[in-house]
Write a structure and sequence with these properties.
2 domains, globular, 71% helix, mainly alpha, MetI-like fold
Length: 325
């Protein structure tokens, strides 16, 4: 197992390097530092002197990839690529365009993101599995038919409808929770109730429909027919056999989502004013803060690769037939 983890970690290095190179090309070859300076300064303050000053303050006055005027190894290190991309591998995220420390912002904002994402993930998983198991148990009945109709209907509705409708009905008309905002400590609960409910409802349709398919697939296998032939009750077959074996693809599928919880929800955090990493990324895009966007792209890549590794490892934990040499 340890050898497999080390091998997968080594495989991830060239992938991250490739992603970093593509991201650098998109940010600096397509959009030059001069273009960044013009967008930040605006038309009224756009002068050659102001552009050069802006670039010098943020380290964009260096060559992109090769500094021919520098001595020795500084030909590589005294470049924009090394300062803005290579240092990301050492978790040196630098500063945003407004001079705030990006690493400090991430360490502060990740907790509101987790406070929102973890309940949505855990409650949503439990609700989806329960709803899907009920539809599978009553397969072919009116309850199953109406359950599928509800799932398709929920899938057809945009997340924005749930957010705006929830804010208007629950927060504005009924005044049960605040419309938006965030507070620290236990006071955060009243600000998170509505986003969590909307997150669970918004993912119920697709999740329950997928899990229902997995349960029905398991119910058609030979070991289930054998269990029924032995006289086991349908309830026992469903919970002791079908649910247990169907949880293998379910758990391995959701493991890949766990690392992305740190990045938060872009739309939900922005609409509800939650100071997490999702709203931080949206604000950076709107402010054209390319330093923050680059860092968030890099972190997202690392977390996604980590999620894939955790998915492979989880197979050995839930399925004893799988072994890695």
């Amino acid at each position: 197992m340890l050898a497999y983890i080390v091998r997968r970690a080594l495989y991830a290095i060239p992938i991250l390097i490739g992603i970093n190179l593509v991201t650098f090309a998109l940010f600096f070859l397509v959009n030059t530092p001069d273009d960044m300076a013009r967008m930040q300064l605006g038309v009224k303050r756009e002068t050659p002197e102001a552009i050069e000053k802006w670039k010098a303050q943020r380290g964009y006055d260096r060559p992109l990839l090769w500094n021919a005027a520098a001595p020795g190894v500084k030909k590589l290190t005294e470049t924009i690529f090394f300062a803005k991309s290579v240092r990301l591998f050492a978790l040196d995220f630098g500063r945003a365009e407004d001079n705030r420390d990006i690493a400090r912002e991430i360490s502060t904002r990740m907790w509101p993101s987790l406070a929102l994402a973890l309940p949505v993930f855990l409650v949503g998983l439990a609700v989806n599995v329960t709803f899907a198991l009920g539809m599978a148990f009553f397969r072919g009945s009116a309850l199953d038919l109406w359950g599928v109709i509800v799932c398709v209907t929920l899938m057809s509705i945009s997340t924005l409808f749930y957010i705006i409708g929830g804010q208007y009905l629950i927060a504005k008309l009924w005044r049960l929770v605040p419309i938006s905002g965030y507070a620290g400590g236990l006071d955060a609960v009243r600000f998170l109730i509505l986003p969590v409910i909307i997150g669970v409802v918004g993912g119920l349709g697709a999740g329950a429909r997928l899990y229902r398919t997995l349960f029905l697939e398991e119910m058609g296998k030979d070991y289930v027919r054998t269990a029924r032939a032995k006289g086991l009750a349908e309830r026992v077959v469903m919970f002791r056999h079908v649910l247990k074996n169907a949880m293998i693809p379910i758990l391995t599928g959701v493991v890949v989502v766990i690392p992305s919880l740190f990045l938060g929800s872009l739309i939900t955090e922005s609409f509800f004013g939650i100071p997490g990493l999702g709203s931080y990324t949206i604000d950076a895009i709107q402010a054209q803060d390319f330093a923050v966007v680059r860092v968030m792209v890099f972190i997202g890549s690392v977390l996604y690769i980590l999620g894939l590794m955790l998915t492979d490892i989880s197979y050995t934990l839930v399925d004893p037939r799988v072994r890695f040499d």
